[in-house]
Amino acid sequence: MPKETVNLMVKGGAASAGPPLGPALAGKGINIGSVVQQINDKTKEMKGMDVPVKVIVDADAKSFDISVGLPPSSALILKESGAEKGSGAAGTKTVSVVKVQHLIKIAKIKSDALTGNTLKTKVKELLGTCKSMGIKVEGKDARDVIQAVDKGDYDNLFNKETTELTAEELAELKEMQKAVREELLKVEAAEKAAAEAAATATPAAGTAAGAPATPTVAAKPEKK
Question: Which residues pair with 51 in a beta bridge?
Fold first, then answer.
């Protein structure tokens, strides 16, 4: 009998033997409890997220393999930052802020997809993504944080693989994100006002510059 693939959508770290997983795997000769445990182990860093999972069942061998679909790093960064989208002008616009702990969490989720071979190098790769998206880290430009990582400023977090924020760190992050949002609104309001002013001025300027010259009519000689 060929292998069968069962596609499921589960909550990260919270799969159970109930629907949709239990009914979908019932009668296939595999231990559903083991499936649940493996899925939760593989998705524990994605709590609260809808995660696509494939369970590849070999009914003859009564065995299974699990493949977890992972969203892009940019989507995970946006989720942690609370921003809806990245900046269209990363050099001049910042859309939100994350902490190094968030990047450690994402690096663990995306471990196999990132090119770095240590947690620190994987986080540095994500810092580059933050820079391109207009997202600050620890309230700083991502390039400055890369230098701090190289100096060992965050080694304590890397060694402990810390992914959670203390209450104090969370409060600090909320304040930074609020300040960034307020600044972004000011920048966008200024851009809108400048665009409207330019749109209003352009027709008038065009009329003045492009208006046809009034033809000069030579005076007729007076009859005697």
Answer: 10
